[in-house]
Structures are given as structure tokens and as C-alpha cells.
Amino acid sequence: MITPAFELSQDPDFLTITIRAPYARVSEFEVCFEGKEFKFYAKPYFLRLALPGRLVEDGREKASYDDKGIFTIKLPKETPGTYFEGLDMLTALLAPKKSRSAKPLIQEIVIFADTKISDAGNGEGEQEEEENEEEFDWEIEQMPYEESREDNLCTSFGYGFGNQKSGVFLRLQEELSEVIDIKNPDVTPADERRKKRLAAEAAKFDPDHYLADFFEDEAVHHLLKYKPWWVKAYAKSMDSQKHSPQDEFDQTAVVSFTEEEREQLRKFTNRTYLLDKKASHQVYLSLLDILLAYCYEVYATEGEKNVESPWNIRKLSATLCWLESFTSVTEVLESFGRRVLCYPLYRHFSLVTHALNDVVIILQLGKSGVLKCLLDIHKIFRENDPSYILNDLYITDYCIWIQKAKSKKLAALAECVQKAELGKAKLGFELDELETAALLVEEEEKELKAAGADISEQQLPPPSQREASDSEDSSSTSSDKTEGSDSDEQESSASEDGEINPLQSVLGEERTAPLVGCNGLRQDTGTSTLDVRNEKSKAALQSTSVPGKLIEELGEQMQAAMRLTEKPEGSPLASDNGWGCSQEMRTSCSAKPRGLSPDGDGDGHFLEVTPKPSPLLILGTTDKDEAS
Hints:
Helix content: 40-55%
Strand order of the largest sheet: 1-2-6-5
Radius of gyration: 50 Å
Distance between the termini: 140 Å
Structural class: alpha+beta
Order of helices and strands: EEEEEEHHHHHHHHHHHHHHHHHHHHHHH
Oligomer: single chain
Largest sheet: 4 strands, antiparallel
């Protein structure tokens, strides 16, 4: 048989059940209801529900079927005006399978003092049970110290929903390191788990990361502007209560489930959890811890789940990561605050306080709001390979259990969280001292900058003098640049002469000494010409400006061209063209400088410096001078 998709709604007089059963055999469809039990059959579909209120068969019941395969069944209530609570808890409505034994294996017996249990089945006994049930004390419970025995080392310690599971990680050692941080949880008691968790958090805390997020909090404030679905649902609930505070039927459902979520609820197997007072108390506190981690993840991703979402939830929840068993609300809040400041990307205390406020809103929305969050967590873990183990340990059981949880206890837990005070000093990281020291350093830096700015302003002259001095500086700078360029050219030419021309000292002596021909006689004629030509060459060298790179290239070429070549002994001093010169002059002749051209008379002339930079001044003589 197939369990069809179904939805329930109500008004003061009727309960409406909508069943989606496509391709069903309508001719064989049957409906049976009596008291709190409802049955539907249309081959191949079968549905049995355990309703929260009683129905009556008085002829007002109606049923219809449309072409889309949807059955709409309208059933009258036994007591008109009765509000049926929890009609969206689909898993809880699916009736559990009957036991094969004649008697139940475990029977819960409740005896009320001076109270008779009514057999009429009108729910009065259940209401009295809720009223007389002992309320939770959300504060820490003090237990006498008991020394651990040696035989406890061989026992297995529980974990999971209500600490009812054990031995799971003995079979899943490969996935252990990827899911939880505690090693060997089956042989590690609860108090030792807590000690190891606190030590790991203290070692993980990074003051630099915290201070960076404390001062550069633009990204955090941007995340806090996001409005998740529960904020909108809570505002809608408040508005509906203002308009019709007494009429529950006119209030629209503030929390709605998607079709995918409804399908997941139908897939869950309905179970009954027998928890003692201590286990029930621990279940509520672990639920609070998981919801806090979920709220942080929603704000950190702005509702857009990513690959880091499973890691964020299980890392921030000590219940999921360290299999922690809490004993008070304060322990839960402190654990969550410490882990937020140690592990995720955004480590800001405002995210902690914001998550606390949002969890209060979720708890005030009732079982529907909590169930919707748990279904989202179940989906996140279901789609992640190693995290699916946490669904089997915690989330699936929570999704089933919350549908039957007491709304009064959720409201009491929300009130306790709202009254709780979580300060930075309780987290144990000396956050106030860190922030105070960082603020002092920041103020000192600002004061130093301000003092430096004041000193610079005092040293500066008034604006009128500053403008005059600026104009003078600009004029002097321009003149200095022109003079500096001329001097730089002279220095560069002089330095290059010293590097390039190895005969500079010889030529300097020839410039100052009287001219002597190759025959050793002094030449008086042409001396004035040499001086004049020297002056012209100096002026040309000073006026010529060549970049440094070009000078270096020219120097290399001149050095390559003016390599000294030594003649063998006994070779004639005169060359083939009749030119006579000394050893130094022979070097210049071998370089064949440009600018030496004899006149028609055959008289030689001194070489002039061309516009291109040349550090050599070459002196040439003619045959007539040699003869004289």
C-alpha cells in the first residue's frame, strides 16, 4: 500500500482532509472515521490518521473528487468550536503500527491524587496530566560527587538523541574524524568530553582574528541586515493576534511547509520516545544548541546554503561536534558563544547575541517553527556525505519528537533564554581586556598623527608667504636646472673623456706645449690657429648635450677604434702617403678621423671637433713641415 500525500485544515465546526491519490480506483474508495481515528482506502492508497480531536458521524460529512486525483473530505467535529492543535505535524498524525503482543511491553501508569480518570475519552485526563506535570528547572542541577569506579572504563557511554545510542562510532571509524572532534566517544565520559572541548576551544581562539573582525565589522553589519523567514513569520503572527486575539480559527498559518518538506514528514516513521526527566531535560537543551548553530549559519550565508553550511552547523554545535550533554541553559549559551569566536569565518560577538534573539523567536513560533528549522538541517546533512550520520544520531529523532512535544515547555524554554544574560566576560577569553588594549593603541596612534599634523602646520609659513616662496622656489629651481644641465654636460663629457680617451694626458701636454713636427722642429706658424680651434672645440663640447646611454656607446666605439698597434722594430716612421707623425699621432692616423682634408696648397690643417661628441683633438702635419 502507498501512503498518499495529505493536508489538514479546520474551521469551528468541521475538519477538512485533502488527500492526493492520482490514478486511484474511485469505485472502491472507502472512508471510515470514529472518535480520533480516521481511515482512507482507495486502491493502491491507504491512509490511517490519529487525530488530535474527536469527530462525529451525524450526516453532515461530505466528500468530493476532482480530475486531478484529489479527494476532499469534510468531517464534523464532535464538539463544535474545538480547536485541533498540531494539524501540520504530519508524522505525528500517522498512526503507529499496532503491537503484535496482547499487552504492551512498556506501560506508563500515572496516578493522580484526588482525581478520577474519566473513561469518556474527552481529553480531560490529558489536560489534567499536563497541568499536574512537573515543570522543568532550567537551571543547573547539583549532584553529589561520586568517585568513578574501575569497571566504568569498560562501559560504553551514550550519545545521540537522549543519549540512547552507543557503539555507533566503533563501526564508523573512517567517518569519525570528518564528523566530530571527540575521539573514542564510546569510552569517553561526559565530563571528560567537556574538558577536552574547553581545552580545544582555548587553543583555537585567535586574538588577532577576533580584533580584526571587531574593528573591521562592515561585513558583519551587512549580514545582520538579512531578515530570515522566522522574523517575517513572527511579525505576521503578532499582527494577526492584534486583529483577532481570541479567534484562533481566523488566524492564518504563520509557518507553512513546502511540498518537499511535507514529503519528508510523510517518510518519517512515527515513534514514541520514553524519556525520563533527566533525558528529557537534556533533549531540550541540545535542541537549543542545534538551533543556535543553525541561526548563525543562516545569517552567515544570508539564507543561501553552500558547501560550508554542514560544517558551520556541526562545528558551532557542541552537541553535534563533541556529543556534549548539557545540564543548564547557561552552559549552552556559553558553549555557543565560545565556538562562534573560535571557528567560523565571522567571529563577532554581535552574531552571538543576534542568534540568541532569533532562537527565542523560533521557540515562540511553537512546534511548527522548530520543525521547519529541523527539516532544513536534515536536508543540509542529508546532502552532505559524512554529515548524514548526524541525521541518524540526532536530527531525524528530533523531527519526529518535536511534533509531540509540549508547547508550554517550548514557551518556557524561550522565556528562560530571553532572561539569560551572556556577557563577554563569561566566555573566558578576556575579550574586554583585549578590546580595551586595542582601543588604547588606536587612540595613541590617532594622537600621534594629530600631533604630527599640528607640528607640520606650525612649521609652514602663512599662505601669502607660502605662495611667494613657492614662486621664488620655482624660478630658482628652473635656473638651477639650466645651470645644472650645463654643468652636468660638462662633467659627463669630462668624465667620458677620462674613460674613453686613453691619450687625454698626451693631448693635454700637446695643447700647452709648443707645436713640434715629426722632425723635432718647433712650428711657430699656426699656433694661434691651434688656440682658436681649441676654444671653438671647448665651446662646441660645452654646448653639445648627449644622453648618457649614447655617450657610453660612443665610448665603446672609440675604444674599439683606437686600439694601439705596435710596429716591429726598424719600421719607418713615415707612412705611405708621406705623413710623418709620432707614435701617439700614428694611433690617431690609424683611426682615420673625419675632418682632416688637405687644401690645394698641400698645407695641413688642424681637425675641428664635429657636432658629434668627440673627445680627441687630432693634429696633422704636411710634408712641407717635415722638410722645414
